[in-house]
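Handout, page 2. Input:
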Amino acid sequence: MEIDGPGDSSREFRRAALGLGLVYWAGVFVSSSFLWGLAGTDPITSAPGKLAYMALCSGVTTVIALVLMRVTTLSFPAKAALCFVLAHLAGPVGVAINFGIYVVCVWPQPVVFDLHAAALDMVDTTAGFFGWACLFMALLYSFEVRDRERRLAAVREEALAAQMRALRYQVNPHFLFNTLNSIAGLVEEGAAERAGRMVMSLSTFLRTTLAVDPFDDVPLADEIALQAGYLAIERERFSDRLRLGVDAPPDLMDALVPSLILQPLVENAVKHGVGATAGSVEIALAARRSAGRLQLIVENDMPAAPCDAPPGIGLGLRNVADRLAARFPGDAAFSAGPVAPGRWRAVVDLPWRAA
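Output:
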């Protein structure tokens, strides 16, 4: 983790480190004043000396912190050993600072250096520096973990976005292939005028769909309008054999749905319904809301036998299922299958969200 580099994380860490230092030394000041007060030392008269000592020792702990910030790649045992070594190196410095402040405070009285007292002070000072080093290492670890979680979240989000785009972009080539086949069929039939209208409708439809961000959700009203535009293209080919029914209450039209989530289902309804029978075929789009859930239903007529999934329908259904799983992990469902002889239904179930 680049603690001293640019960015919000570095600034947050510096603020946290400063706060930790202030709290640590404030705690040392209060506890030492209380303990020395119990030993008979006036906490008021000794306060200036203790404050000077802690101000100078905070410089020592700053050096310890700077060293620890440069060795973030070491293993935990190595870091623990380094904290131990740094505390013992800083101990004599702390003892010298304490002795120097004591000399200044009692001046002009002569001071005799007491080796036994200095040794006791060394133990206390070293323990204090080691405690600071351990706290600072804990702070470093907490920020490293948080930054790692942020990076992983960013990677997961980008991977999800890439997956959603890949699934979304499967729609346009598949749709384009089907529509161009329809135009080719009109040309072969000699219906040049209808083929021309279909090309213009296709241009308008593609312009609209390509402007949609694959990671954005759209209101249900827009999604239904897009599918109506697609079916208007197909109606040029199938003419009086294709009927569209929409059953969506007005209060559901502002529900948010993944863009073009219905496109593969409508394509399959056209290909395996209208394209597989010579009679009139109805494609019905419906929306229902229940208990905080939104259901989108696509039904179509199809040949009565056999009553199973037509060949080649898997890609479109798999696309819808994969997009729902990526967009709403564990919170969306998709099902498709025959509901009666000659009738096919696909149902998308997702959380209700209003625009």
